[in-house]
Amino acid sequence: MSLLSQFPKLTTGPERLLLEYMLDRNRKAVIDTARGLSEADARRRLVPSLTTPIGLVKHAAVAERVWFQRTMLGLAESECDGRALGGDGSFVVTEGETLDDVIAEFERASARSRAIAAEFELDDLRSHWIVGEVSLRFVYLLLIEDFARHAGHGDILREQILAALEELQV
Fold first, then answer.
1. pLDDT in tens, 6-49
2. Which of 30, 139, 154, 161 registers the highest number of CB atoms within 10 A of its CB?
3. Would the pTM count as exceeding 0.90?
């Protein structure tokens, strides 16, 4: 991988375009940490918390719903198209869900978030039940930061999983 390929392709332009590009870039980064792992490896717990590669993708889908469906649209959790409450439960993946299912869920939640965001200006304010008034700009920045951090967690987990598999093969 060249050094240039690590940098974003879009580096100039209007603020909103840059925010949306960076959020999409980090959405992809979260997915890339889990994509291609076996079902067992995607669920492998290497830390005391509930953090697993598949759990990070599930958590990201929940974050999309919390910030776009609940906060920006003002929907009740029961009106959202999936879990929309944070905490440890946002990392829980049921036995019947596959990695492909969870990735598709995150991609659907992201697509809905994009459609919701298109209806707002960056400075439009909405009320979040814990932090109070937030703008769409804040939501973009928060999720860019959140997804970047979780992609980093996922990178480390993936590296540990792949290293363990290599040890088994030698």
1. 888 889 999 999 999 999 999 999 999 999 999 999 999 999 99
2. 30
3. yes
Which among 16, 4, 6 has a CA at the least distance from the CA of 123? Answer: 16
Residue 80, both tokens: 């959202």
Rounded-to-integer distance, Cα 21 and Cα 42, Å: 27
Q: Which residue has the tokens 């992201």?
A: 110
Say if residues 84 and 62 touch (Cβ distance below 8 Å).
Answer: yes
How far, in Å, CA of 82 to CA of 65, rounded? Answer: 8
Q: How many Cα atoms are found within 13 Å in the side-chain-facing hemisphere of 91?
A: 16
CA distance 24 to 20: 6
CA atoms within 13 A on the CB side of 20: 16
Rounded CA-CA distance 150/47 in Å is 14
Beta-bridge mates of residue 79:
none
Cβ neighbours around 123 below 10 Å, total? 9
End-to-end CA distance of the chain, in Å?
25
3-state secondary structure of 19: helix
Residue 36: helix, strand or coil by DSSP?
A: coil
